[in-house]
Automatic annotation (TrEMBL), chains A, B:
It comes from Shewanella polaris. SUPFAM superfamilies: Dimeric alpha+beta barrel. GO terms for molecular function: monooxygenase activity. This is Antibiotic biosynthesis monooxygenase. Keywords: Monooxygenase, Oxidoreductase.
Length: 96, 96
């Protein structure tokens, strides 16, 4: 199994930045404890505080997919319904 | 001085992927040796091989700006002239 890098970009509605940030922060400890999680770091754009980004490294795509189906991500989606204007996710490979 | 995360997205022309990749790879060793460089990792999108991404961490914005003005980046820009269709750069802060 080869490693997987995930880049997840989340853009919050202007008046929902604090809500989205709080919900994203809740994901970190529980996700870092998941099988296969190498790193899971949340960032905020210096020029646009509504733009958050998770940079994640996983032992394999299979283990990342288990994470994606976990309850805490479902809870995040429910808690931020209507508060996120854009979400993109890229699966990548470190080439050096 | 606070740390800085850089996310640089580079999209190559379809027929210039190998050229751009080769030029990006040349940047890695010299950049990692620069003062202030904590990490400098090149990725390729699994769904779009023309999409490259550097995930970078720097000790400070000042030291990153010295990097941005270095000769090897100027050489990269010259070597890939006309071969890159899109370039975006985000300055970010790790919040957890």
């Amino acid at each position: 199994m080869s490693k997987l890098t995930i880049v997840a970009n989340i853009k919050a509605k202007a008046d929902k930045v604090d809500l989205v940030k709080a919900e994203l922060l809740k994901l970190i400890e529980v996700t870092r404890a998941e099988t296969g999680c190498i790193s899971y770091d949340l960032h905020q754009d210096n020029a646009n505080p509504a733009h958050f980004m998770f940079y994640e490294n996983w032992q394999s795509r299979e283990l990342w997919q288990i994470h994606m189906n976990n309850q805490h991500l479902a809870d995040y989606v429910a808690a931020t319904e209507g508060a996120v204007v854009e979400f993109t996710l890229n699966e990548m490979t470190i080439i050096d």
